[in-house]
Write a structure and sequence with these properties.
Mean pLDDT: 97
Bound molecules: 1,3-dihydroxyacetonephosphate
CATH architecture: Alpha-Beta Barrel
Order of helices and strands: EHEHEHEHHEHHEHHEHEH
Number of strands: 8
Largest sheet: 8 strands, parallel, barrel
Low-confidence stretches: none
Number of domains: 1
CATH class: Alpha Beta
Strand content: 5-15%
CATH superfamily: Aldolase class I
Strand order of the largest sheet: 1-2-3-4-5-6-7-8
Helix content: 40-55%
Length: 256
């Protein structure tokens, strides 16, 4: 009942020409899929051209990697949700660990962005995840709970339908060392139980929770077969259309 959602977070990679070639290749490799929701999340500079290119490719949706919480104003260098909506962007990643760790985003900042995104008609992909040190110290549950509780403060029950959570353990991002399916499933169960506490159990059952961190064709099917894993947020392996297409296939296989 929760449609799996596979998103490629391109981070600070791919120019417009490279993005065009990517989409061409992804469509050729994949054909089309309606069983899995596929989202491409490029740099801001590529969004307008990609929006036009994807106009007749309805099975691929568009996302952004960040946004400011205000609609407009004196915020040099920032992009608003309203601007993204005008380009047919549907999803926006918020609170990625790279933004938290490299650009000082706190849970409170992420919360402002989540509320603004929902108000402006975007679907947030709220990223949460613990560091290796936090995991080793036994603080994982507490860290995840805090990220959810503060990140979703003030979000109405109705708005939960538009929400996606991405569990991305920091130690698994870009390291080649994915969480194993049991570790990921356990974290997702915990996340769903916290979601039930801040909304209700029926709503929590409908929120999609992606796993992110070194997802690749070799581990995708097993990860995507776990009961509470509803998709993936893919970094490095999502930069190659052939590899990303293989991950789409693995996800479809996990549904069978
Ligand atoms: P990798 O797939 O490269 O580990 O990156 C995961 C990620 O950060 C997606 O947002």
């Amino acid at each position: 009942m929760r449609k799996k959602i596979l998103a490629a977070n391109w981070k600070m990679n791919l120019t417009q020409d490279e993005a065009d070639a990517y989409v061409h290749s992804l469509v050729r490799e994949t054909g089309e899929t309606n069983d899995v929701e596929v989202v491409l999340i490029p740099a801001f500079t590529v969004i307008p051209a990609l929006a036009a290119r994807l106009n007749d490719t309805a099975w691929i949706r568009l996302g952004a990697q960040n946004m400011h919480w205000e609609k407009s104003g004196a915020y040099t260098g920032e992009i608003s949700g309203t601007m993204l909506r005008a380009l047919y962007v549907r999803y926006v990643i918020l609170g990625h660990s790279e933004r938290r760790n490299l650009f000082g985003e706190t849970n409170e900042i992420v919360n402002r962005k989540v509320k603004a995104a929902l108000e402006q008609g975007l679907r947030p992909i709220l990223c949460i995840g613990e560091s290796l040190q936090e995991r080793d110290l036994g603080h994982m549950n507490q860290v995840l709970e805090e990220q959810i509780r503060v990140g979703l403060k003030g979000v109405s029950l109705k708005e939960f339908h538009d929400l996606v959570i991405a569990y991305e353990p920091i130690w698994a991002i870009g390291t080649g060392k994915s969480a194993n399916p049991q570790q990921a499933q356990e974290a997702h169960v915990l996340i769903r139980s916290v979601l039930a506490q801040v909304s209700d159990s029926g709503i929590a059952e409908r929120v999609r929770i992606q796993y992110g961190g070194s997802v690749k064709p070799e581990n995708a099917q097993e990860l995507m077969s776990q009961k509470d894993i509803d998709g993936a947020l893919v970094g490095a392996a999502g930069l190659d259309p052939v590899t990303f297409s293989q991950i789409i296939r693995c996800t479809e296989a996990a549904l069978a």
